[in-house]
Amino acid sequence: MKNSYPPHLEELFSHWAGEETISFTPLPPSGSDRRYFRISGTSRNAVGTINPNPKENRAFIEFSRHFKKAGLPVPEVYAVSEALDCYLQEDFGNTTLFDWLSTARNGNEFPEDVIRFYKQSIDHLVKLQTEGVQGLDFSLCYPRHSFDKQSMLWDLHYFKYYFLKLAGIPFDEQLLEDDFNAFADYLQQAESNYFMFRDFQSRNIMVTDNGPGFIDFQGGRKGPLQYDLASLLFDAKADLPHELRQELLDYYIKTLKKYITVDEPQFLEFFQGFVIIRIMQAMGAYGFRGFYEKKEHFLKSIPYAIENLRFMLTNLSLPVRFPALEEALWQVVNAEKLQKLSETVKLTISINSFSYRRGIPVDASGHGGGFVFDCRCIHNPGRYEEYQSKTGLSPEVIAFFEKEEEMDQFLTNVYQLADQSVQKYLKRGFKHLMFSFGCTGGQHRSVYCAENLARKLREQYPVNIELQHMERASWPG
Question: Strands 23-26 and 370-374: what pairing?
Fold first, then answer.
């Protein structure tokens, strides 16, 4: 809703673009306090970012400017507020590499153009890690200047407290703590004078007309090469088959040798360790968002992460062993209740009403499936004074629509599409589906339609319904 946006974000856009804003469209939320909006004027557009953390913002802004000058595929920063709490950046579009994978792959078969795109991403990653580090001010890094022992222990404890404990996995506290310290000491032996993106995974790689585009590197810091590669190849939801992982690992090393001398056996040895700590960091995030914050869609990634962990533990050949840590990880792999997570998370159906003046709602689940229905073809009660202070929830408006044959025909068609999709999604085990209804003001027709579809699906199917009226705060009264 536009009146929930900080006024200075709109002012920032108007000042930069030299024109008034036409629409604010919220983009899917990330696993942070940052909020993103696609902002459009008559001829210019940008992605607006709101973040109350100025240090994190400063890191992203200055990194972007540095990497842009180096010819790397990062968004240009157009404008920054004086308070450093919001900024405008180049719009790389809607399609992430994960979105593309979700539609292009056929089981474990990957189209050649997707594989080529992965290799293009690796080309840019290697350049960013090795050449992008030149002249970079690491004092900008937030919250830590490097992926040192302190950073590693933060990640390991994140995993312990938000995954192991919340999932009920037994472990010996002192022995595990001893292994955490020993594991971090071992990883610290890897060469770490490169730029570490920190979260280099398929949702942070955009598919643009010019190839890959990188976003969300505000957590970057000085660190080892292997961590970002582990993030890409063992990205849980991307679920890359082992053969493709090996092909991309070989390609990375071949590309890296164009920039630096590589001790390949040593590189691969440390790579195993960084895959393990990256999986643990990701599982800590899934536990925090899923178990603690009760955001179900994060739980869907856990079975994929477990399979990655199983593969690594089965093939582990580190020169040092960490028995308490390995035991805890095997407990995770063999926990039956965790394996069943993919079966127990129900289909969640998001149903929204909205105003076309504010833009179409964005699918926050990352799934990308669903429908948008334009209700402006239906007779509008908002034309009449007696209904202007009412909404699609008001008895008077409900009575109005119940007499309208075109509303009945419209919803009949919607129900047919909804039934077909919900039945198929349930059968195939999909977890998210979205229906959005738009009208001029988001007050009457769209609200009535959203309410009726929600009621029907609740009564007919074993699903979770998330119903949201996007314009509720602006309704009269």
Answer: unpaired
